[in-house]
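Record Thioesterase domain-containing protein, 179 aa.
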Amino acid sequence: YAIPQNIRSHFEDNAITAKCLSLQNYEPTVPWARMQGSANGLFLSTLNNENTIPHWITLRTKQRRNLPTAPTPGVEVSTTTKPDLITLIHLGGSGVCSFHNTLHGGMISTLFDEVFFATLNHVMYTHPADVDNPTRFSTMQLDVKYRRPVRVPGIVVVRAWCLAIAGRKCWTYAELLQE
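=>
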């Protein structure tokens, strides 16, 4: 998959996202949230305009890891392992805000949920078209710690890890960063 140049150039102007785009251990993949034919109308159409989320890039590791069947307690994942997925998101305008120039907290949770779905598809070698059945992947618990407001308009980077997989139960972790 080649990132369309008009989208790529948008992220190359930002120091953090330009660094992400140059990482050799990652390759771009079709942003599943924007894949035509998907049942995901929220990100495919509703949140796909200049006033919401006009640009979205997904980078995945070229080499997948072997995953344990339970997460390791007490380990700070972001300092020990490279993320399985890096998502670059342009927040365009007031269509994603709750307060003036501030990303809605529910939108933060929604972004995490969508990135977790893409992360699980990557580490489990599945394709979104194979998981439109909601019994395949369903969020059972999503805990979010809000540390500071996210500015809009702006660019965010969501780094995501799959910590463990045991049957249909998966543990994931992500962090949303903004310069």
